[in-house]
């Protein structure tokens, strides 16, 4: 066998193995989604959105408390995490640059935080907020989710701003525009699609977190909107119901899993749809 024939054979072998691995991965994904959809749709009904949590055996039992609690936690953490992430990413790209030691240290720390297990962040927030306060609270959960969200948005903003051509900045400076106007009206506007995608991915990431909320906001089986007290979340409620021995609670757990998965899937698809036109232009 010649060298060329050997290379062609190896190439075909690697192609077959890669395709087979992709099909196996897609098969497991479709399997998981099919089970989730079948059990989730079967458990969905109007009671879920009307009633709060109830003891096992009660027909008037739902997830209203968890849905509202989840919306509060995600909404407030987004209001805190998004501005911090965008501002920090803007500093790294426009003021720090690629040669600044401080900027590179921040990037390294951000990368470490992105890969750190969320339970570690939950333990940290428990130690610095929950333990000194003496009780679980919604604010502690918001702090944990914001800490998880900021590095994702920071790195996305930094990367997207660096993709904006430097000629646009130079043209704006040549027209006499100050730096803050160049950043606001030229650079951020040119990278808004990518930044929005990063925001959606950050929200999708924290929407499915359970471990940090167990250490911070804990849970509540009834509707509570006071963020200074323990507050219900869809993820923790799903965990509690799905692991319970009661069939009606298990159905509520499947319903919570279906709602949460569809929300996260929608955000991820929306992010890719928004980013697709920008990729096609390159």
Secondary structure elements and pairings:
Layout: H1 3-43, H2 47-50, H3 64-96, H4 101-115, H5 118-133, H6 138-162, H7 166-174, H8 179-190, H9 192-207, H10 211-215, H11 234-242, H12 247-281
Describe what you observe in this structure.
This protein is an all-alpha fold and 282 residues long. The protein folds into two domains: 41 residues; 233 residues, MetI-like fold. The chain starts with a helix and ends with a helix. The model has no long low-confidence stretch (mean pLDDT 90).
Keywords:
282 residues; mainly alpha; MetI-like fold; 2 domains; 12 helices; 78% helix; 0% strand; globular
CATH class of the largest domain: Mainly Alpha
Number of extended strands: 0
Tally of alpha and pi helices: 12
CATH names the topology of the largest domain as MetI-like fold
Query: What best-fitting shape do the alpha-carbon axes yield?
Result: globular
- Quaternary structure annotation: single chain
From N to C, what is the helix and strand string? HHHHHHHHHHHH
Mean pLDDT: 90
Return Rg in Å.
23 Å
Named CATH architecture of the largest domain: Orthogonal Bundle
Number of structural domains: 2
> Main β-sheet, in a few words?
none
Q: CATH superfamily of the largest domain, called what?
A: MetI-like
**Strand residues, percent:** under 5%
